[in-house]
Model the fold of this input.
Amino acid sequence: MRKLLNSFLNIMDKIVVIGGNTGAALVIIILFLTMYEITLRYVFNNAPMIADEITAYMLVAVVALGLSYRWREGGHVKVEALTSRLSAKAQYWLRLFTLSAALFFSIMVTIGSFTFVGRTMQYGSISNTWLRVPVIWPQLFIPFGFILLSIYILCDISRHLAKRGESRAADWRQMDE
Done:
């Protein structure tokens, strides 16, 4: 069972890294699209109207794909001034609580984003620009990103629980000596 869990965690790590790298590549594309639009607007006095819309859609994808990658890298806000003064046991339980709260929040946002996408599908919304993009396609990144984040937080919870099990096993070994 532990081997299966470790395999799943490794697969999730790879998926999250691919998502993060894809988000980074999209940021570079956004940069070039913006430079292209600026060049055409100010040098040739002829701005393409698509760059704004496409970069907005890409920005949604960057944020959605970057959520779990940022979580993996530990880049979200942490306040350690108080927690570092707690006992190891209290730190363990506080971390478990905060992970559980983050998972709950992420699941709630996932549900909300599915509702959002469902309404978009129901009304058949399309963009008001001349591209006339069905807005469901860029919106699908939102539930996908939060599903990925929820699964990754769940993986962190399992890693955290495994640490407790390992430390208990170490305590038992010390008692035997």
Notes: Confidence is low (pLDDT under 50) at residues 169-177. Residues 2-176 form one domain. Residues 2-42 form the longest helix (41 residues).
